[in-house]
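Handout, page 2. Input:
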Amino acid sequence: MKVCPGCGALYDGHRWIPEPDDDQVRRFCKAKLENQLCVGCLRIEKRQVEGVVTIRGSFIGAHRMEVRSIVNRVASKGRHRNVAARILEVTEQKEGMVIETTDHSLAERIGKELEKAFKGNLEIKWQAKDRFVRVAWQR
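Output:
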């Protein structure tokens, strides 16, 4: 059994469990645990960016907290599905923000959730060869 020293995720021999519950922790405590970075923490350490979300527009000025709340909620849900899906960095700007993610699907989901919540214009551009996506949302 392995535990990630970066985020506390547990590896049960088949998959990483991002936020183990008390029963899982008790079960793992009986086994010998060794430290190993999970896939998400490795991607953060290597600064492996698979998605960039650019959020722009005057709407952001008045609704920055709501936008951040949606981004954080989507990232939290994404981490439960895939331990590698993380937000690497958020760069705040006057009329927007740029979010770098370690998973291309997470970037796409952030853009789609912003469009669903606030309408606006969403543009998703997948890079042909690599698993990389650029998402632009504007309102």
